[in-house]
């Protein structure tokens, strides 16, 4: 493994993307920075964390600052990170922190646990020095108001009660392989706008929204309830044991499409091969490998 095989792929969510140029710009900045670190010899863990933090800090995306709100107007965020050696850290329904993915990494490195949720996750974050931070933006509040006027195809029961449209994209994820062949995957999400408070999505759950094994890494996005049911990231991981990343993603997603699940995934295999795909109208994604950057706006499906 040498410099030529380092690679990073990121996504900015599956769904309907209206601000394509903003998504592409945010993704390219994060990918270029992650790739620069990898080329300098940084571990995949560092490159993935840096890329995801940049995406979380960019209010265009639905993660960290700018996260989608629950029906009670609360930003509850999920994030997970996993290495190819099976190390995992996750946070679920965490509030009032700037970078959920960094707290997830601390769960992995500083605790005996895999996942911390809710108040316990917040208390742990504070003990690790993460300051109180309000990730709620005016835009996220407006989006919730718009949803209330329309209706979500994902949550018909909530619709009935509240009259809540269309799922916006914006969850973020990154997968990288470093020059030693180490692979790390991470996902961070503000969840689906208009969900119930306390709802757990796929992003912080190993095997669902994020997965890594010696065969490679995966980050998923889309309808969390269905991704959890399918254990989509694990499904792609299992297929990748014998198949290149792209074939594994394509096969898993054709199954998802058959089941009418709206989702998307990015992956890297142990040889540095890239894979991506989606069943939703759009997915924001991009990758850099062999010193070439590719963005979803470079070609249409
Ligand atoms: N998978 C995320 C969730 O269900 C949302 C998304 O990826 O858009 O929480």
Automatic annotation (TrEMBL):
Site (Cleavage): 170-171
Keyword field contains Protease: yes
Active site: 171 (nucleophile)
Record-linked InterPro entries: Ntn_hydrolases_N, Peptidase_T2
Xref: SUPFAM superfamilies: N-terminal nucleophile aminohydrolases (Ntn hydrolases)
Ligand binding (substrate): 199-202, 221-224
Pfam families linked: Asparaginase_2
UniProt keyword Hydrolase, yes or no: yes
Key words of the record: Autocatalytic cleavage, Hydrolase, Protease
Gene3D superfamilies given in the database record: (Glycosyl)asparaginase
GO molecular-function term, one example from the UniProt record: hydrolase activity, acting on carbon-nitrogen (but not peptide) bonds, in linear amides
A Gene Ontology term for the protein's cellular component: cytoplasm
An individual GO BP term: proteolysis
Protein's UniProt name: Asparaginase
């Amino acid at each position: 493994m040498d410099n030529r095989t380092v690679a990073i792929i990121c996504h900015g969510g599956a769904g309907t993307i209206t601000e394509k140029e903003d998504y592409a710009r945010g993704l390219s900045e994060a990918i270029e920075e992650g790739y620069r670190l990898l080329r300098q010899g940084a571990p995949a863990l560092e490159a993935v964390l840096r890329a995801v933090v940049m995406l979380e800090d960019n209010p265009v995306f639905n993660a960290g600052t700018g996260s989608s709100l629950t029906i009670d107007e609360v930003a509850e965020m999920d994030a997970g990170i996993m290495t190819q050696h099976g190390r995992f850290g996750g946070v679920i329904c965490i509030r009032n922190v700037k970078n959920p993915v960094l707290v997830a990494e601390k769960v992995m490195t500083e605790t005996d646990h895999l996942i911390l949720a809710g108040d316990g996750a917040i208390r742990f974050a504070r003990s690790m020095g993460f300051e109180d931070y309000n990730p709620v933006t005016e835009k996220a509040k407006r989006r919730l108001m718009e949803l209330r006027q329309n209706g979500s195809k994902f949550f018909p029961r909530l619709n009935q009660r509240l009259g809540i449209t269309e799922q916006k994209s914006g969850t973020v994820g990154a997968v990288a392989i470093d020059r030693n062949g180490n692979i790390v995957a991470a996902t961070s999400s503000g969840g689906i706008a208009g969900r119930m408070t306390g709802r757990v999505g796929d992003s912080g759950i190993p095997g669902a929204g994020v997965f890594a094994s010696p065969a490679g890494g995966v980050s998923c996005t889309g309808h969390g309830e269905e991704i959890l049911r399918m254990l989509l990231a694990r499904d792609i991981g299992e297929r990748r044991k014998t198949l290149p990343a792209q074939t594994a993603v394509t096969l898993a997603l054709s199954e998802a499409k058959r089941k009418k699940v709206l989702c998307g995934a990015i992956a890297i295999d142990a040889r540095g091969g890239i894979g991506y795909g989606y069943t939703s109208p759009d997915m924001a994604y991009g990758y850099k490998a062999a010193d070439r950057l590719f963005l979803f706006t470079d070609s249409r499906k």
